[in-house]
Amino acid sequence: MAGENQEDQILMARAAWLYHVGGLNQEATAKRLGLTRARVNKLLSDARDTGLVSISINPANVGLLPVEEAIRQHYGLEFCICTPALGHDIDVAESAAILAPFAFRAVGAAAGSHLRRHLAETPHAIVGTGWGRTLEQMTRQLAGVSAPGARFISLMGSLTSNLAFNPFEVVHAFARTTGAEGFFLPVPFIADTPEVRDILLSQQSVQQALTLARSTTVAYISVGELREESLLRAQGMISATELAELRELGAVGDTNGLFFDAKGQAVAHPLNRRTIALGFDDLRKTCTVALVAGRSKLDAARGFLASGVARGLIIDGDTAIALSQQG
């Protein structure tokens, strides 16, 4: 009961901030918070009755809502969700290693909550998924969710040499937990050559999977940074030489098989002709939600958001603060 009361207090403060300070009407406030208009009306009424808005709104409950709004408006997003920030009192050089594990879990949990709402509102949802540590954490947040009418589809080639965090395992975990159906692209993430990629894409099973992937009602993809410690290098999916070449061409990150620069444009590297995944043009047609966990992904996040692909962003609070300050 105590947890529910605390959640109500936080929702009350966020609704009050959006309505009284942000200038949104009740309908827009409800959409931003993912609530019904009736619920927002009740929250605003309770806020007045309890004196929450008589003088000021409790900033402790508002949390990072001003940061969320700044990022949302700057990048033209439909929504931005920030997890709590923990690194204010930690040296930046030390904070990355200390906060990175928390960032993956926190963003995964927030994304899981977002998916819960989508499955509840859309019984026959088609959910597109990427890969990585954040998506893997997300699969752990759906205990008790039943969505037998939903379908999960990997948005990228699902056959990799290592099972850790790979697209097939992500889809399988989502489907197993929710009772939904799972589908995946039965090809490697990165083909040996562009010619091999074209042959694989011509296969009927691959085309059928891509057709389903283009029908998603929501897509969750993580944004990756380009450095030696990144998952792509840790999993041996690109070489040190390729990493250096990408960075020399101006690449700042990757997502869903595309390496992009600070303006969100694809760089002219052969890898962008060898990856097998749903491209940016298709992702723009669905509700693509970018997941960003960790300050090491700050440049990659900024570049990806500049592409205009994402409609929503779920990001850890410390990275969000840095993004809003440098955006």
Verbal overview:
With 327 residues, the chain is an alpha/beta fold. It has two domains: 2-62, Arc Repressor Mutant, subunit A (Orthogonal Bundle); 66-326, Rossmann fold. 48% of the residues lie in helices and 15% in strands. It has 15 helices and ten strands. It has helices at residues 2-21, 26-33, 37-49, 59-62, 65-75, 92-121, 133-138, 167-178, 194-201, 204-213, 231-234, 240-248, 280-283, 298-306, 317-326, and strands at residues 79-82, 126-129, 151-159, 181-188, 218-222, 224-225, 251-255, 258-261, 288-292, 312-315. Helix 1 crosses helix 2 (26-33) and helix 5 (65-75) packs across helix 15 (317-326).
Give the helix tally.
Answer: 15
Any idea what the radius of gyration is?
A: 20 Å
Indicate the CATH class of the largest domain.
Alpha Beta
What structural class do you assign from the helix and strand content?
Answer: alpha/beta
Overall pLDDT score = 86
| CATH level-3 fold name of the largest domain | Rossmann fold
Q: What's the order of the H and E elements?
A: HHHHHEHEHEHEHHEEHHEEHEHEH
N- to C-terminal distance:
40 Å
Outline the fold blueprint.
Blueprint: H1 2-21, H2 26-33, H3 37-49, H4 59-62, H5 65-75, E1 79-82, H6 92-121, E2 126-129, H7 133-138, E3 151-159, H8 167-178, E4 181-188, H9 194-201, H10 204-213, E5 218-222, E6 224-225, H11 231-234, H12 240-248, E7 251-255, E8 258-261, H13 280-283, E9 288-292, H14 298-306, E10 312-315, H15 317-326
Parallel strand pairs: 1-10, 2-3, 2-5, 3-4, 5-9, 9-10
Antiparallel strand pairs: 6-7, 7-8
Helix pairs in contact: 1-2, 1-3, 2-3, 5-15
